Amino acid sequence: MTTQEEIYKTEGDKYEALIAREDYAGNILKSLREITPLEDRLVLDLGAGTGRLACLLAPAVKSVHAFDISEEMLRVCRQKFAKSGLSNWRADIADHRKLPVADHSANLAVSGWSVSYLAVWNPDTWREELETWMAEMRRVLTPGGRIVLFESLGTGNESPVRLEHLENFYPWLDETGFQFKWIRTDYKFESLDEAEELSRFFFGDELGNKVRDNEWVILPECTGVWHLAV
User: Fold this and answer.
1) In this structure, is residue 93 part of a structural domain?
2) Does the pLDDT at position 8 exceed 90?
3) How many domains does the chain contain in total?
4) Looking at residue 5, what is its pLDDT?
5) Taking the alpha carbons of 68, 84, 23, 176 in that order, is the dihedral positive or negative?
6) Helix-, strand-, coil-residue percentages of the chain, each rounded to 5
7) Which tens digits make up the pLDDT trace of 169-190?
């Protein structure tokens, strides 16, 4: 099976086909507006992927600068922005821990399902990686600027569960002072065949089988929202 890391490097279009089905009820943007006003915000989107958050925010904010380490993901992100007709965006290659932006040049940093990889992909140095990222957030954000992170609490779950592979990440967020709430970000597919294919593609056979067995055209998903003013 292709790993998620490999998907990010090579499967931008199919990944976007999946992501385009997520959060059909619009709870992500609603939750952001409940946390902070969006008007006049200078936004950094970290691990932007194909532009899920960046494209959602761009019509509401002053500017969005999207970053990802995958050129394949950003290829799709740029295509989406080009079709939007908006001009208040940029998309560049960068690591979370070293962003090519000036000190205190943004007032909102968002990241969806991405910062946790600093812990997942660096099991021996996860705390150091997260602390380095946090220091970078304090550098690039204005005083009082806000960080908002979205992370999984279970795809295929109707109630939130803390995932085993994120067992270090969740407590670190609590220790660092992030406030927390959770939302549903259910996927709505056009057919059961599409639901099974795309779920199996990214999440693996176990979830693909569960989608087929439950005949889920709407795939339940719980997402945690963590936010912090710096």
Assistant:
1) yes
2) yes
3) 1
4) 86
5) positive
6) 40, 25, 35
7) 999 999 999 999 999 999 999 9
The three-point CA angle 107-151-199 to 5° equals 130
Neighbours of 14 (CB within 10 A): 15
pLDDT, residue 1, reads 64
pLDDT at 12: 95
Residue 134 sits in which domain range?
A: 4-189+221-229
**Other beta carbons less than 10 A from residue 74's beta carbon:** 21
Asked if residue 211 is part of any domain, the answer here is: no
Is 215 contained in some domain?
no
- Name the residue among 44, 43, 52 with its Cα closest to residue 17: 52
CATH code of the domain containing 80: 3.40.50.150
Q: Please, are residues 44 and 108 in contact by the beta-carbon 8 Å criterion?
A: yes
In a domain, 200, yes or no: no
pLDDT digits (tens, 9 = 90+) for 71-103: 999 999 999 999 999 999 999 999 999 999 999
The structure tokens 């989107």 sit at: 45
**Contact yes or no for 49/77 (Cβ under 8 A):** yes
Token pair for residue 228?
């912090």
Backbone angles phi, psi at 62, to 5 degrees: -75, -45
Which residue matches tokens 């385009």?
20
> Nearest to residue 97, comparing CAs of 134, 142, 43, 53?
134
